[in-house]
Each structure stands twice: as structure tokens, then as C-alpha cells.
Automatic annotation (TrEMBL):
Membrane topology reported for the UniProt record: Multi-pass membrane protein
Keywords: Cell membrane, Membrane, Transmembrane, Transmembrane helix
Broad class of where this protein is predominantly found: membrane
The protein's name: Uncharacterized protein
GO cellular component: plasma membrane
UniProt subcellular location: Cell membrane
Organism: Thermodesulfovibrio yellowstonii (strain ATCC 51303 / DSM 11347 / YP87)
Lineage per the UniProt record: Bacteria, Pseudomonadati, Nitrospirota, Thermodesulfovibrionia, Thermodesulfovibrionales
TM annotation in the entry: 21-45, 51-74, 86-106, 112-133, 145-163, 169-190
Listed InterPro entries: HyfE-like (IPR038730)
Origin: domain of life: Bacteria
Length: 214
């Protein structure tokens, strides 16, 4: 399981720090696939069959649908993200600190105070913190939606980490979380697409006005 969580954090880093938006969105695919693998593995280890259904839904929505929708939004705009509020080297350094030190610190903290919680807790909390930091530093709309996506994945894992002791409650919480997340991200992507369409219309009108003046 440790290798799976490290892979999730690695592709999270690529997703958050890539300047090319298309590459950043494509990095969400392996990021989400490893989340699916983790959910299936947790379900198998803890013998919770309902997690298999959640894993299938994660595969469809997180690994397939969300990247496709985001790539569609990028179709009519530049693929280089808007300059963030902090420099790229500093952003990379902070990301490495948050993802590596944060994950191992939480793992140590968990072993002392939350021994009953499975290892997805550390990964989930790290994703949540990193996604929040990413959101605060980014100015690009696509990157901000990706940040929300990472935050939601962190919440997803935090809920899963409670499964051994509250299976029924967790199943209901996961289902509710999943539905809310889907509706929220679909709404964001629709709004994002509307913004890009308006930008294209504005650019088209400006170019026409400049031509008419000439």
C-alpha cells in the first residue's frame, strides 16, 4: 500500500506543478488510477464489497470523465497556465516539503494517536493540505479546479480511512461525498467552459474592431 500512496503523491506533484495545462490534466489520469487501485485494495483487505462499486465509480469519474471534460475546456485556449502568485522554483520546493515531509509526519502522528486508522489517512490529509496550498498560490482557473479536485480526493481518502470501525456510516458518507463532488466539478467545468467561450468572443470582437479601424 505504501508504494501506491507514494505513486499518488508523485502524480499529484506532477499535476500541481506542471506549467503545461494539458500535461497537468493528463497527469490526473495516473493520479486517479492509483486512487482507484488504493480503493480496491482497501476493499479487498478489509473485505468491504461496497468499496468495489466506489472504485468503479472513481475509475469512470475521476480517471476518465474529469480529465476529458478539462481537456475539452482547454481546446480553445492557451495551454500554459497563468503565472502563479509565487515563483515556480519556490512552488516546487514547497510542494516537495508538503508532500514528503507532511506525509511521513502524519504517518508518525497517526501511529501514536490514531492507531486504528488505516494508512489512507496520511495520504488523504496530505492531499487535502497540498490541494489547499495549491489553490491559494494559483491564479489559473484550470489549476484552481485541479486544486479542488485534489482537495476532494484528500477528503475521499480521509473518509475511507475510517472504514474499519464505521462501515455503514462511511458507505453513506462516501456516497454523499461522491455525489456532491461530481455535481460540484461538473458545475465548475461548465462555468469554466462558459468563461473561455466569452474570452474567445471578446477576442474575436476586438480583432474585428481593429481590422475595421485599419
Amino acid at each position: 500500500m505504501e508504494i501506491i500512496y507514494i505513486a499518488i503523491l508523485f502524480f499529484t506533484f506532477l499535476t500541481g506543478e506542471a506549467k503545461n495545462l494539458k500535461f497537468s490534466v493528463l497527469s490526473l489520469v495516473p493520479h486517479s488510477l492509483f486512487i482507484v487501485i488504493a480503493v480496491f485494495t482497501i476493499g479487498y483487505i478489509n473485505e468491504i464489497s461496497s468499496l468495489y462499486l466506489i472504485g468503479i465509480l472513481d475509475l469512470v469519474v475521476r480517471a476518465i470523465l474529469m480529465p476529458i471534460l478539462l481537456l475539452k475546456c482547454l481546446k480553445n485556449r492557451l495551454e500554459i497556465e497563468t503565472k502563479p502568485s509565487i515563483s515556480h522554483p519556490l512552488s516546487i520546493a514547497l510542494s516537495i516539503v508538503v508532500l514528503s515531509v507532511g506525509y511521513h509526519f502524519v504517518e508518525i502522528f497517526k501511529s501514536f494517536y490514531l492507531p486504528y486508522v488505516i494508512s489512507s489517512f496520511s495520504c488523504g490529509l496530505t492531499l487535502f493540505i497540498y490541494g489547499f496550498c495549491l489553490f491559494m498560490s494559483k491564479r489559473d482557473i484550470v489549476k484552481m479546479i485541479i486544486s479542488f479536485f485534489i482537495i476532494e480526493n484528500g477528503i475521499h481518502f480521509l473518509i475511507i480511512s475510517m472504514i474499519p470501525h464505521m462501515p455503514k456510516f462511511i458507505e453513506i458518507s462516501l456516497t454523499f461525498n461522491f455525489i456532491i463532488a461530481i455535481l460540484f466539478f461538473v458545475y465548475l467545468i461548465i462555468r469554466l467552459n462558459e468563461v473561455f467561450v466569452k474570452e474567445e468572443i471578446k477576442k474575436f470582437k476586438e480583432s474585428n474592431s481593429q481590422r475595421s479601424q485599419l
